[in-house]
Each structure stands twice: as C-alpha cells, then as structure tokens.
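User: We ran a pulldown and think these components assemble together. Before we commit to crystallization trials, I'd like a predicted model of the whole complex to look at. Sequences follow.
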Amino acid sequence: MIRLCVCVVAALALAGCAPLVLVQPERQTVGGVISVQPGIKWNKLTMSGYRGNVEVWTLDGPGLNTLLFFTGVPDGEPLFTRATGAAQQEKPAVFRSAMNPVEVQELLEATMARNFQTTIAEARNLKPAPVANGQGFRFETRLVGRDEVERDGVFAGTIRNGKLYGAWFQGAKLHYFKRYLPEFDQMVASAQLVGDAAR
Amino acid sequence: MTCLEHRRGRASRALAIIVAFGLVAVLAGCAAPVQRQTPELRREAGRIPRIVVMPLDVELSQLTAGGLEEPHAEWTDAALKHMRTALDDEAKVRKVTLVDFQSERGSPEDRETSLDLVKLHRAVGSAVMLHQYMGFTLPSKDGKFDWSLGPAVAAIARSHDADYALFLFVRDSYATAGRVAVIVVGALLGAGIPGGAQVGFASVVDLKTGDIVWFNRLLRPQGDLRTPDAAAETVKALVADSFQ
Amino acid sequence: MSLTRRQFGRQFGCAFCGLAAALLAGPLAAQAPASGRTFLVPGYRPAPASDEKGLWSLMDRVEQELKLSRFVVRDPTLNAYVRDIMCRLAKDHCPDVRTYIVRTAQFNASMAPNGMMEVWTGLLLRCGDEAQLAAILGHEMGHYLRSHTVERWRDARNKSDFGTFLGLGLAVAGLGAFGSLAQLALVASSYGFSRDQEREADEIGLELMSKAGYPPVAAAEVWEQLIAEYKAGTAERARQLLFATHPEPEERMGALREAAAKAGGDAGERGHERYLEKLSGVRAQLVGDELALRQYGRSELVFERLLVRWPDDGQLWFAKGEVYRLRGEDGDAARALAAYARALETKNAPPETLRGTMLIELKSGARDRAQAAFEAYLKAKPDAADADALRMLLSQ
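Assistant: Here's a predicted model for the assembly, 839 residues in total across the polymer chains.
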C-alpha cells in the first residue's frame, strides 16, 4: 500500500506535476523578472488555477494565504483570470500602461469581484512606497469570497516600461494574514527587477 | 493546471482524473490518520476540561437515480442525534465536560468572531485534509503540523468559559439501488466519492492559543451512519483518543 | 461529493434559470387563466414521511445558513419594504413567506418550497419602480403557490441521465474554501421550469399584481428591459443563455403585453417615488457593485434607462460617468465629464463625482482643473479615505 503510494506520487513528480514546490529562504527570481529574498520557506503552486503573468506562492495552502507575483502585466491584459465560470460575463477589465496607481487599485478591486464572484471586494489606503529601487505604490485589500471567509491583503508594485510588476499577499483575516505580514514586507524591501524588466 | 496543460487535451485530462482517483484512494493509507500535538488535555488543579462542541458539520446524502447527491435531511438529523449521544457517553467516561456552542452567547463582538471562526475552521479543515492527508504536501512545513485558528479563539473561550473546542465534519453518501459510482470531471483536486463511502475529520482546538492540538481523519467506512451503532462507532473512532 | 446545502438549494430556486426559460417558452396562452386551479393552502406543511418533507427540511437548513451569510443585506427599511410588497401580493400566505435580500450584482429572485424568498440586489438596482419589483415577486409567488419547485425536484430525481448533474458533483468533500473548486460546482442548472409552469407563474403573477393594485403591464416591462440589456452586452455565452432556442423572446414579450392588457394593463399604482426612497440606504452600494463588474455596455444601458425615470438623480448621472471613465475608450473622457457635470447640477450628486472629475482632468493634463476638483472633493467629503492617494497623484 505504501509502496504504491510512493509510486503514484513519484509518477506525478516525474511528469513534472508536483503541485507544490519548495521555495528556499534564499534569493529567488520569479518569472525571470522579480528577484526577492524570502526570509522563510515558501511553497510555489505549479497548478494554481490563476492564469496570466502571475506566479503563486503559499504558506498554509491557497485557501488560507496566497502570494501573487505580477511578473510584468502588459498593456491590454487583465491582472489575472481564473478558470471559474466567469466565462458568461463580459471580457475582464485590463491593465493599461498609462494607468496611475489609483486606477491600478480600482483594477484589482474589479479583478477580485470578478474572479471570486463576490460583491465584497475593496482596495484602499493607497500610498506611495519605494519598490524595487524606484518609485512605486502600495495599498490594502479586503475580500469576502463565497466561502464567507474574510481575507485581508496588501499589494505593492510599480509600473516600469509600460508593464506592471508587483506582489499581492492575501490571507484569512483571522490569523493567517497578520502572522506573515512582516515576511511580506521584508520581501518587498528586498525586491529588485531583473532580466527583461531591468532593461 | 499548467504542467498538465502542456500535454495534449482530453487524454491528459482523463489521465489526470484517474491519477487523482488513484492518488486519493491510495493515499488514504499513506498519512497517519491522527495528529496529536499535545499528549493530553490540560487538567489544571481541580478543573475538569470544558470542551465546546461546535455545530456538528454533518451531511448525509443520497445518490439518486439521476446521479444527484442529494442532502438527506432525515438521515442527517438522525446521524446528528446519535453522534451527540455518543459524544456525551465518551465525555462521561473520559471525564471532560461538553458544552454546546451557542451563537447568542457573549458580547456582540465575540459573537461575530465566533461565527467567523466557524467559517475559518472549514477553510482550515479543508487545508489540513488537502495538504496533510491527500498528498498535496506543503514542503515548507517539513512535516510539522502547525495549523491554527489563531488567538481570536479567545472569543469562544470567553463566551463559553471553555478550554477547548471540538469540531466534527462528516460527509457520507448512500447509493440508491442501481446507482454506480459518480465520476467527477474537471478538477485534479476534486474527489468523487463512490456510493457508500465516507469522509470525515475531527479537530480539537486549544482555546488558549487557537492551535489545533488534535486532528483525526476517518480512515475507512464505519458503516451506515444512519444507524445509532455506526454513528457511535464513528464518533468513538474520531474523538475518543482526543479526550485524554 | 455533496454540494454545500446552499449550492444544492440554489439549483431548485434559481429563478434566473426560470426567467431564461420563460423567455424561451412558447407564446403565452391568450386566454383567461383556468379556474379551479389548486393553490397551496396557507400554513401548509408537508406530510412527515413524505419526500417533500425532505426537501422542505433541506431548505430550512439552507435558510439557517443564509441567515448567517455576509452577503445578506440587513437594511431594516429596505427589508420591511420588500416584505410589505410580498405580503400585499401573498395575502393569506403572507405569514408563510420570508424574504431575504442578497448582495449579488445579478438579476435574480427565487423562492424555495418552504417559503424562503431570495431577492438579489442586481434586481433591485434594475427595477424602475415598485410595480416592476412586484411583478417579479408575483411571478415567484406563482411558482410557490403551484408547488412547481417540488414538481421539478421530483422530475430531477427520477431522471436516469446522470450526465446532467455531472458538473455539480464537485466541491472536494463538500469542503468549501478552495475558490476555484467551489465555483466549478456552481454550473448553471439545466433544470429550468417547464414552459407550462412558466406560463402559469406569469398568469398567477399578473392576477396577484392587479389584485394588489399594481399595473400588470409592469411585468412585460421587466422582460423587455432584461432582453435589451443582454443585447447590449458582448458576452456571447450570456446571450446564448437567454436566447438559446426559438422562439424569439420578442414574440413572448408581445404575448405578455397582451395578457397584461387583459389583466388590467396600465391601471394601478407604480410606487415610483416610494421605491427610490426605500432604496436610498443601499443604492450607492448597488451602483458600486454594478460598476465593479466592468460590463460597460450593459451598465450604460441600465443607468440610461433609470435616468429616463429619474432624470434629476445625481447618483445615476455619476454612475454613468463612472462607466465611461472606467471603460476609457476614445471619447469616453468627454462623455464622463459631461455626465459628472450633469450630476453636479442636481441636488444629490455624490462627492465621488468630483473625484471622478479630478481623475479625468488629470489624465488629460488639465492640472489646474484637476486641482480644483480635488479641493472641491475634500470640501464635500472632508473625511475622504483616499485623500492622500489623490494628493499623491497631483504631486507627481
């Protein structure tokens, strides 16, 4: 029984389909463009259900907290989409290079409302912030999904060369967000844009 | 599903489902069913541990001829009744006091927090099942079991003057005559339960810290939960060890 | 695995499925409603061992969960208002019915066999007056009084085609939480009401409306508005949902107008002003929820239509401006400014109108005008939470 178990998991791993991959607390490059230094171990989701220029990490599982990296959202693309029956709705709202931070904040609000099929999705407290050796911005989010769990969040990002780079950490308001906020803050502080983003 | 998307369409989806099935069925045997973080409940001088029994999240359903898993109120009511009786019996034997969770107790703030904690526990319970038992291990945890509801549980401790909270979750389905297994389409993480199987877990939360100090998963079918005996057996299998 | 109770309950209460099916159903019989129709008796309870009792108990549990939901709107004025309309229509059945207003930005209302009625805020936003809301509630009462849901449920249980409910068997172990999985489980139900059932509900709805003093023509208006809105949208799938098969919904609308004319036509109370007044506590929220969907074509039409009824409503002009600002296509900046300006001429323009003006002016490079709008915004809303954010934009 145990042998068979190991075989199945190994088969998946061989297929390159391990759903969760360890991220060591050492400098990482995300999507080839964002370099960060996590202070603790994280897990990267290889099958997150999020589509677009994003990479998703988690600590306690995506139901409890998620860290979404935006690895260069270009003009005309949505921040992300999820395969969750939003097909019947109109086309998603998209990012525009000429957007200012207020509009990016509004965009994430609309993206949350659409992808989590909720009316309780808000972004607020926009402030300027240094991000990746340059001028950026930061704001908070609040979301209640269909599971009725309230989630707090924080987004930090910047627009460089017409693309949006950033990170959005979200977690259950009770315990799972606050607990790791310092880790998120220090990761943002460590962030640099590299590769294509640095040109 | 990025890695599987790279393979070709439908064949890979079918494979994914079969693998998912195999994974779920097989891994049922892989992880230890009980996670016990602390050896025993705190028994401070003279105080019998008070355990709040949170609203039992039990749903028994029937697989109809149309392939619909239809929640069956009567069966669920019966199972709930039998389980509650069994819990009381266990409590007497193990010398703990059980208190029913009452949503009207406590300050308005505590009441709201308590409800939010019930909702949170569903999410945490799902995460434990998925990442601890169903093979989607979180490598960062290094095998540690550190799931928690957080310090906000003080709201329940206050309103019920309690030391621990007990959560019970059971889903079970019974096929009507002539039904075959219901197959689940489309999600690697989705698990179809063939008629007659059960999923269940129980968790005990320390109301001082919010930590889940005890978590147990139903390993194999315990029989027809619509009958008092099987319901009692299920409760025993799930919680008895936790009331030490 | 089994659905959450609410997901299960939703299939059998989905009036939108019913509404869609209504539009697809055959032409309304242009004759007087059949007499001798048996209605549910007031105070009805299903027999203890019956299958119906099972469905009833399930719906009771769904209702218990609904009561605790974050998405239920608890505004006392609005709730009392909707309940009163319900009671006027339901008469002797009033004590059997409980109404819940659910914050979802879609047009829907549904009624469960145990008397639990859900009205979605997307519907409340779209109704032009009390009579239109009464039309929907009356239609749902029709399904309830004739136990259509129980019939449909029995049908569904007996069908041997298990493929239909395939998609609904998801949701890992009924454990909520994983957003994508829970959503996968909410596949649109294909078990709409039958054509006969829809026809019946329409007829009963018209009767109840006219008896309660509402103009039955309002029922036809609701459908017309809905069709027009979907035509204005670009989501092919959404359009298909409504127009999937023949006959042309317009044909049905014609038939409904005819039946309405026979049932009393235009005579009756609209409750036009009262409707706006009772909604005033939540309307800003409803507008915000609609805008968040970013379905520009549809929202534009909805707000334009409402402005025909309430031409001096600052909140509606603001909403229209926001549609253009958020869409941001050629010419939209000018359209937005025009709408905001019109809003500011009314008595009830929300302060956010000035915020919108500022953002547009800033984008066009008109710094002085943007600055002026910002200062006016702060004056109108001294505690504006986004003041710092806007100031930051001006300083860049």
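Strands of chain C lie at 98-102, 109-111, 116-120. That may be worth checking against your pulldown data before setting up trials.

User: Thanks, that helps.
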